[in-house]
């Protein structure tokens, strides 16, 4: 059985933010000039991260969360339990709407997000989410 995620207060958010900032330093954002980094804890103890990677065809840019969920899956899967996102100054940033959906797939409503308004469950950031459960009869 998968253990319940640690409570928000038991998590070293500063350390997780440092991983996100390091990821942000690798962003490829020449078009927006807006680097983003993300990091998350996985229920087996791993940490995964990502940065945004833009494209000359602007609409094809990849948000940092795309890299994060790709690394999650590539390195063994599992469930995201705690997540943070930072902008180019290292300040905490809210994930965009599309990326909340990506996070929902791999973390569900209980995933804890560090936001400028404090630590919140994804259910508060993406209410009434559409998810895998809607596809099962
Ligand atoms: N961006 C992310 O990487 N994640 C988010 O959650 C917010 C937005 C990126 C996309 C684009 O490369 C840049 O920030 C400006 O929108």
Strand and helix layout:
Blueprint: H1 13-24, E1 37-42, E2 47-51, H2 64-74, E3 80-86, H3 97-107, E4 112-115, E5 118-121, H4 122-125
Parallel strand pairs: 3-4
Antiparallel strand pairs: 1-2, 1-3, 4-5
The structure holds tetrahydrodeoxyuridine (THU).
Tetrahydrodeoxyuridine binds at residues 29, 32, 34, 36, 52, 54, 61, 63-65, 85, 95-96, 99.
Strand content: 15-25%
Report the radius of gyration as a whole number of Å.
Answer: 14 Å
Q: Could you report the average pLDDT, rounded to the nearest whole number?
A: 95
Number of domains: 1
* Helix content, binned percent: 25-40%
Strand order of the largest sheet: 2-1-3-4-5
Terminal Cα span: 25 Å
CATH topology: Cytidine Deaminase, domain 2
DSSP, total strands: 5
Look at the structure and name the CATH superfamily: Cytidine Deaminase, domain 2
Number of helices: 4
Q: What class, by secondary structure content?
A: alpha+beta
How would you portray this structure in words?
The chain is an alpha+beta fold and 137 residues long. It has one domain (9-125): Cytidine Deaminase, domain 2, CATH 3.40.140. Helices cover 28% and strands 19% of the residues. It contains four helices and five strands, in the order H-E-E-H-E-H-E-E-H. A five-stranded mixed sheet has the order 2-1-3-4-5. A hairpin with a 2-residue loop joins strand 4 and strand 5 (118-121). Bound molecules: tetrahydrodeoxyuridine (THU). The site of tetrahydrodeoxyuridine has 14 residues, from helix 2. Tetrahydrodeoxyuridine (THU) is lined by residues 29, 32, 34, 36, 52, 54, 61, 63-65, 85, 95-96, 99.
């Amino acid at each position: 059985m998968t253990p319940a995620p640690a409570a928000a207060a038991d998590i070293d958010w500063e350390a997780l933010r440092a991983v996100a900032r390091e990821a942000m330093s690798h962003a490829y954002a020449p078009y927006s000039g807006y680097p983003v980094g993300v990091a998350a804890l996985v229920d087996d103890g791993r940490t995964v991260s990502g940065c945004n990677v833009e494209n000359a065809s602007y609409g094809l840019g990849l948000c940092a969360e795309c890299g994060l969920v790709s690394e999650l899956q590539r390195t063994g899967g599992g469930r995201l339990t705690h997540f943070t996102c930072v902008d180019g100054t290292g300040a905490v940033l809210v994930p965009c709407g599309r990326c909340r959906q990506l996070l929902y797939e791999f973390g569900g409503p209980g995933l804890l997000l560090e936001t400028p308004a404090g630590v919140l469950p994804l259910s508060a950031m993406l209410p009434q989410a559409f998810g895998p459960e809607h596809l099962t009869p």
